[in-house]
Amino acid sequence: MSDTIAAVATASGVGSVAIVRVSGDNALDIAKKVTKRETFSPRYAHLSSLYNQNDELIDEAIVIWFKAPHSFTTEDVVEFQCHGGSIVAEKILETVLFYGARLAEPGEFTRRAFLGGRIDLTEAEAIAKLIEAKSDETAKILARQMKGELREFVDDVREKLLRAVAFAEVTIDYAEEDLPDDIVNNILHQLEEIELKIGQIVSSSERRRGMIEGFKVSIVGKPNVGKSSLLNAMLGYKRAIVSDIAGTTRDTIEEQIRVGSHLIRIIDTAGIRDSSDTIEKIGIERSVEAIEQSDIVIAIFDVSRTWDEEDEQILSLLEKSGNNKEIIVALNKIDLPKKLDTKKLEQFNPLQLSQDNKAEQIFSELEKRLSKMAQGDELLLISARQIEAVKRARSAISQAKEPLLMGELEIFTFHLNDAISAISSISKPVDFNDIMDKMFGEFCLGK
Ligand code: GDP
Ligand code: ZN
């Protein structure tokens, strides 16, 4: 027996319809009191007047009863679909609370759906991310996962691994001699296929992680090349919707900017916000750090000064940076007489920036790079937790191959069981209380 919870399930403010959702054993009773209606048919849209506890009319609304277990939470659920705007919904909520429901905690509906077995953890995670999805494309991917795409993949891999373990165990128990070569090769082949597939999913998820969190962009270059000027131009650009996030937990400040259908986060490890009259101590270490942390690096060179040791260092960092990164090289101050020898930068197809065209050029280049990075039909792992689990599975599978070839079947089984528990933890973690508290706690109310 669980208590009955309630919340406004739609975003506050705008919208023509607002939904108040009630879930739990008393949901139907409460609905009867609010509507003064005696009977409800499950899943039927009843047009009803709603009254508060003083018998005053609140609204005309559509009321739907989802009879347990055929509801999102698997409990009795009643939804009041009332006129939009927050006032009506708030009044309904107050009345529902008056009749004995309790205000739901963030994510509590989804938590109940999970506990009721309606959704697994991959689906719950997708819902959590979907609520704050940064773009349409991202929302589509998440919606597919909500419907179980990742769970199906996990189930498929788990089943293949279980079959391999079963083969080995039968052989350990019954066979006198070693596993026949063709069976070994067959298992090996299957493991290698899984390894390959997992590898693709991991690298494409890491490349596309910005679709969930926003792509991280850094601006690097020696002092006075024009980093702050570029950032300011970008922030002032007409298409950019900007929000300021004062980092509370980290020591850097970041700016979020919308670029086309994507979100970028400018990470400010190099102190690009410093005003130009303070001396910037960028140091090469800070550039190293900035490059490491970002998905896209914008490297700026000043054409009005001659090439020096610092430019050389930045160049070598760019040449060394990982292949999962996009590098944009920009030659700045092309309105001034050119002194820089740019030959070494030609490999990067540099952009040419002057005082008045910085933002346009950078944004159009960013859009190209972003759509390239977001490309891909692979399954997307949407949290560090999922990526960790899949990597653990891959490494266990890879460790199982050698013992299989050597006929050391106990060791083989040991590693495969490790892989199975890692992959299973994605949808059904053994100890999920911590994960649940953390995950559902980040939800907004009413979900
Ligand atoms: P940072 O140290 O890399 O952040 O460089 P700033 O953005 O502070 O710029 C250094 C100086 O270069 C400032 O005086 C800017 O006004 C100037 N500057 C930046 N971009 C341009 C440009 O495109 N053309 C010219 N002529 N000056 C620029
Ligand atoms: Zn600066």
TrEMBL record:
Which residues are listed for Mg(2+) binding in this entry? 228, 249
Q: Which domain of life is it from?
A: Bacteria
- Presence of keyword Nucleotide-binding: yes
Q: Which InterPro entries match?
A: G_TrmE (IPR031168), GTP-bd (IPR006073), GTP-bd_TrmE_N (IPR018948), GTPase_MnmE (IPR004520), MnmE_dom2 (IPR027368), MnmE_helical (IPR025867), P-loop_NTPase (IPR027417), Small_GTP-bd (IPR005225)
Binding of (6S)-5-formyl-5,6,7,8-tetrahydrofolate, residues: 21, 79, 118, 447
Q: What class of enzyme is it?
A: hydrolase
Q: Which SUPFAM superfamilies match?
A: P-loop containing nucleoside triphosphate hydrolases
Q: Where in the cell is it found?
A: Cytoplasm
> Family per UniProt?
Belongs to the TRAFAC class TrmE-Era-EngA-EngB-Septin-like GTPase superfamily. TrmE GTPase family.
Q: What is this protein called?
A: tRNA modification GTPase MnmE
The species this protein was found in: Hydrogenimonas thermophila
